[in-house]
Structures are given as C-alpha cells and as structure tokens.
Amino acid sequence: MLFSLGFFFLTCLSFRAEGSHRIKADGHFTKYLSQLVQEFNENPTHPRFNCVILPPRVTGDKLENFLCPKVFIWCPVTHYRLDIKCPIHRCLLKPRFFTDQLSKVSARNPRLVYDLRGNGLLVQRMYVCNYNGMSHRYLSASETIFQSVPRLYSDNCFPFVMFYKLACTKELLDLLETQILQWVSFLKVR
After folding, report:
1. Quick one: DSSP state of residue 83?
2. Cα distance between residue 59 and residue 75, in whole Å
3. Are 39 and 53 within 8 A, CB to CB?
4. What pLDDT, on a 0 to 100 scale, did the predictor assign at position 58?
5. Which residues of 88-109 are buried (b: 16+ CB within 10 A; e: fewer)?
6. Which of 66-80, 110-124, 145-159 is least confident?
7. Distance separating alpha carbons of residues 12 and 64, to the nearest angstrom
8. Which of 31, 65, 133, 169 is packed most tightly, with the most Cβ within 10 A?
C-alpha cells in the first residue's frame, strides 16, 4: 500500500515534469550558468563544486540575481579525477560537453531538480565511448555511470535522487515518505 501511494505520487509529479522539461531563462542566467561551467573547466577539483551552488545574492543587488535557481555541476571524471570505463567496451570514457544550454530545446538542456527550498538545475557532462570508429554516449548522472563510479562518490557526493523524467533532493523524498506514512496511519485509525 505504501509503495503504491509513493509510486502514484511520483508518477503524478513526473507527468507534471513532462511539460516542464524546457527551462526558460533570460540572458542574465544563461551568462551566469556559462560562467559557472567555465569556472569548473578551469579548476574542476575546487571544493565549490562539491555541493549545490547557490546564486549570488548581495544586498542591493539586482532582482534578477534573486531569481536564479541553484546549480549543481556533476562530472565525476574531472572533479574527482576518476577513470570510468565504458560498461560495454571497457575503454575509458572521454568527457565532452555539458548540459548547459538554455536557449533552445535539445539534449544539452540541464535537468530540473525539485527541492523543498526552491528548485535547482543539474548540469551533467556527456561522456563518449569511441570504440573502433563507433561511438555512444552517457550522461554523467545516468544509472550506467553510477554503477561504474565507486560507491563512495556516487552515494555521498550526489545529493539527488534520479527518476526517469524528474529528479528531486533526498530531503524532498524523505518528506514525501514521512507524509505518506502519516497519511496511511491516519487511514488505518479511521
């Protein structure tokens, strides 16, 4: 019963997310996101990229800075200096582009992450396997990559729970489970 209620709620949330997979942003936030990705490329092991990056909020700042979402950049290959092999061909995956494009709908759009205190964006890196002239790609937060990353990094360093069409923080999922348990216990009492 509990599992079916949780599954129903997440299914409803995913249908809601289906229409919101396109994130609209103005030029200000697009420039801010490009700057964050550039900073990551220049110094990928910086501790700033260990957690979710909050937007700059300075007293007296422009209103547009207060409307920027949180951002998490996930690229375990460059950030943690890991060698991740293709699960099919066993050759090293090469990091390519980031999912940081906001100007049009494409495979390079960041993923929306639901949170209790304001939603955020997950910027992933595309990894490419080039084997005998053939290539295939993986997103850095895909289940295939998580299975290849040592558990220390995948469990403790990635703050989200990924589903097929949506992602949410672990805190939001904990709250949902608690609310469902309370609702079920209330129904049993009646």
Report:
1. -
2. 32
3. no
4. 61
5. eeeeebebeebbbbbeeeeebb
6. 145-159
7. 31
8. 169
Neighbour tally for 20: CB within 10 Å: 13
User: What is the per-residue pLDDT for 5?
Assistant: 47
Burial class, 15, CB count within 10 angstroms (exposed 0-12 / middle 13-18 / buried 19+):
exposed
* In the chain, % of residues over pLDDT 70: 79
- pLDDT per position as a tens digit, 14-42: 444 444 445 656 677 888 899 999 999 99
DSSP state of 81: T
Is residue 28 helix, strand or coil? helix
Domain positions in the chain:
2-168
Phi, psi of 58 (to 5 degrees): -120, 140
Residue type, 114: Y
Check: pTM over 0.85? Answer yes or no.
Answer: no
How many residues make up the chain in this entry? 190
Amino acid identity, residue 78? T
